[in-house]
Every structure is written in C-alpha cells, then in structure tokens.
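Researcher: Please predict.
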Amino acid sequence: MMHFNKKLIINNTLISLDSPTFIIAEAGVNHGGDMETAKRLIDLAVSAKADAVKFQTFRAEHLILNDIKKAPYQEKTTEPSQSQMDMLRELEVTREQNIFLQKYCEEKNIIFLTTPFDEVSLNELDELDLPAYKVASTDTTNLPFLKKIAKKGKPIFLSTGMSFLTEVKSALETIYEYNKDVILLQCTANYPIQDEEANLEVINTFKNNFDMLLGYSDHSSGVGAAPFAISMGVKLIEKHFTLDKNDIGPDHAASLSPAELIDLVETVRRVDSYMGSKTKEPSISERKTRMSLQKCMVANKNIKKGEKFTEENIVGKRTGGVGISPIYYNDLVGTKATKDYTKNEIIKKI
C-alpha cells in the first residue's frame, strides 16, 4: 500500500487527521469571464468563512478539439447551438487576471487556488507559486499531465469523478514517484447529481486501499452530502457556488446560492464540533453528571461483619459518586464485610 503524507500545510493552514475540515468554495467559471464578478465571488467566499476560493484556468485551444459537443448538463444551462470550444473561450482567465485574483485574495485573507486544465496553463500558474494544485476529474486518467503536476512539488487535491478504482490507483502510482502530498477526493462528475450518485461509501473503499488524507468534491444539490462525508473521515470538501443560480453558464444552476454557501460552512463547522475527540472518556460537562447518575455499591439488606458479600445482599444505586463502582462488582462478591452494614449503607471499600 502506498503511504502518502497525512499532514499538509496550505498557506499556514494545516490539513491533517486532527484538523478542522478544509473548505474550498469553488467559484470555477461562474465569473463568466468578468473580473468584477470574480471579485464578488471572492468576497462571498470570505464572508462565508471558507478556507479557500478556487477558480479554473485553461486555454481552450489546448484543452479541447473544435466542434466537440457539450456535456449533457452544459447543453441544458448554455446556448445549445454553441460548441464546447466557444463556450470555454468565453470563460478563460488570463495570466494577468489570475495575478489580479491572487492579489485580491491575499488582501482579503483567503487562500487563492485554481485548477489547471492543460500544460500551458500549468506552466503559467507555476509562476504564481500556488500553495497547492487541484486536479479536476477530467485529468484523473491523464497520466502524463499528472506526472508534470506532481513534479511541481506542491500539494495535490485529486478528484476522481468518472473513474474506476483501477484508474485511481494508476493515477496515484504515477504521482507517488514524485510527490506524496496528495489528498484524494471522491467525486461524481455531474451537475447536479442525484442523491444516490454521491456514493459516499467509496470513501471507505479509498480508506481500505490507500493510506492518505481523503476529501469530497460535492456536486449534490444544496448543502447536500458534504457534511455527511466529514463523519466518514474526509478532511477537505469542495463545493461550487454562485452569485445567482439563474445566471447563464454551465455551472450556475448546480451551484450553491450565497445563502447556501454560508449555510454549508456553518454546517461543516458544526459537524467538526460534533466529531469532537477520538478519546472515549467523560467530557468535562459529564463529570458532575457522572457523580450524580452513575451507581455505586450499597447493602441490599443488613450485613454482619465477617459475612460474605453476595449477589443477593449488595446492589448498585445512585449515591452521589460515593462508594465502590459496580465495575468492581466481581471483585467485591465473595469477600467478607469488615463491618456491620445496614440496608442502603454505602460500601466504601473492600
């Protein structure tokens, strides 16, 4: 089994098995090519208290051949007669625009991320010294591209939509030779998905096959499946958001509204709190309750000095925490009383 690092630092933010969930607000292409809209998306991610905001960087001519049909969900949310190439050209973010967005994120104290979709974009982004690279599901099987990203030496968030487990293994094997700072994300690549397509059980499959940090890229509707994934052990979640679900564009309809993004972050932080400690012991608030409610051993009838304690003459009752816990019942039975006991008198020592 490959063993990846389980502690990553992303711009001074720790991602580990014991850290809070790392939340990526996925702006994606919901800026529509307009940088003022992109700034508003960043502002929204900041107000929602996400850890990072992520965009997408590609050069359409390096990403796709001419006249390729759109994905079915894209046909529903954009002009049907428009090719995928033409749609993507309208959504490109230039090198200068990425520098502008990165600087704006620094001013707003939120981590800037963007997904490279082609080698030209990857090399451009390398100049920005990003804290991590997100790899989209479209490149899970693109082994030569994964090799180039791995060699950059930055942490990698690897989505796995549309992939078989054998393909995920091949992707990780390719990366592992050069880079062990990887978080593996379960993902179902449709927008939006049906509830039964979330397949959170895959997280357990990943646990059984890979020794590494896990995440979940969530395309379910609304706040959706992401909070449930946290209880299964993921330490990173990613979710698309928009300013207006009714805007024209491929991802708006399947994205979170501003209010939903805020709700998502609040819910995730609440789940983080629910997860609490791995140590099973009484919490601070339980300790006084324990004194009041847990039982100790008392005489169930009058017992003479020298008489043996038996199942019939002792019983557990609430005593305010005074006396011998029934956890030691087996040690007590068969020993002799060192004094006389009246009924309901607390047995304080063996």
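Model: The CA atoms of residues 57 and 295 lie 63 Å apart.
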